[in-house]
Structures are given as structure tokens and as C-alpha cells.
Amino acid sequence: MMNKEKELKNRRRPQVIEAHEFLEITHDFTDPKDAIREAISNAIDWGATEINVIITEDRTRPDEELV
């Protein structure tokens, strides 16, 4: 293995809690649809081949608008 490849393989990767990161990013948007649109756009920009979006309804808050 080449030195550059070995260096990249041994490099530490930061630990990211996706849900927390997503919630932090959503505070930058006033409309939840814009946050979802941005997340999908970023995934495409980074070459995602599959994107899963799961939206659930909070039945304890029936008067709230669904995204």
C-alpha cells in the first residue's frame, strides 16, 4: 500500500450524531421544507446514490401542520 493510501486509511474520522447535526442545521431555516430540501441537495452534491426521507406524524399534536 502506498504511503498516501496508508495515511488516509489511518486518519481518524470525526464522530457525528446525524440526528443532532440535522437538528442544529434546521435552526438555520424558518420553513421545515427548506431544511429538507437543503439536506437532499447536499446529499446529491456529495454523490449520494440513495436518499431516504422518513417523516412521521406526531399524533399527540393533531392540530400541527405536517411538513
UniProtKB/TrEMBL annotation:
This is Histidine kinase/HSP90-like ATPase domain-containing protein. It comes from marine sediment metagenome.
